[in-house]
Amino acid sequence: MSDKSNIDSPTIQGRLNAIADAWTASNELPADTTWNDITDQSIALYKQLEDYIQAVETDTPFSRAEAEMWALRRTVDEQSTFLAYEAIELLLVSEDTPFTALAQAIDEITTSTVEEYAADVTAAVERAQDLAVAVEAPQNVRPASPAIAVLDRDTKRRLQDTATPDEESLDDVVSRLLREAETDLSLGEFCEQYLDERGREDVNQLAVQETTLEGGHLSMTVHGSRSQDVPNVVTETDTITIAGRRFDFHLVEDPYGPHNFERIPIYGWMDTDKEDVTLDEGVAAVRERVQELLTRDGAPTPGSTRPDSSLSQ
Question: Model-level pTM greater than 0.90?
């Protein structure tokens, strides 16, 4: 079972998101941050992404600017933190930004124009995926894409023998077998067990990163006192169900915080002017957000389908 928790200092993405949050609210950098600091963070991030950007530019029809946007929005750090649109805007308006192609490609750099450019890049990828056709690889050839699995004859036969009457393909069989092996909890059940094991008095905030709800991966952040012991519920749970949708998940314990930037608080601190969120309130807010995404035209479909949708949380 994969490790879903780490206990690290804030990453570049996390720091840039926090700085951008303050910068967007006041139109000024935090008192302890200068534009030279932003440039240093930008260069450090660019060095992390440079090889990937070059590969995307070389191996796809993307321009350099499109490759830079794709890398900025689609790569996450070890804490599963996405770089927010506001943080990308902050990088691009910096005078010495290393992401020069992207900065030049956007006429007037604002959060809205950054988001629009990112949406255009994503749409181009989706159009390409619609045209992709999966073919069976020849014998003794290892497929380049992990989305294509080549099964030997005996494995295919065993899967066919395992099929139920309503399963029409091997994909149906494999999906069912994987589901049967999974340990799944509703969001409320998972959080309740986590808080019981971790200790409610040691958790200042438990929150969901809102942008991850638009995909199949759920990222949660815990702010509180440091702990080297990962609660059993984290390592023993494979998936979390919200509003009948299945999510893989990752949980990060971060002693720095809390804050609300692109997050939905599930438990604890909400805002300096508001009362703390109860677990029931937080779970309901996340469930409502998933339901909104399910009904909103043009929104990415959150999670994946659960055959048993009786889990409402």
Answer: no
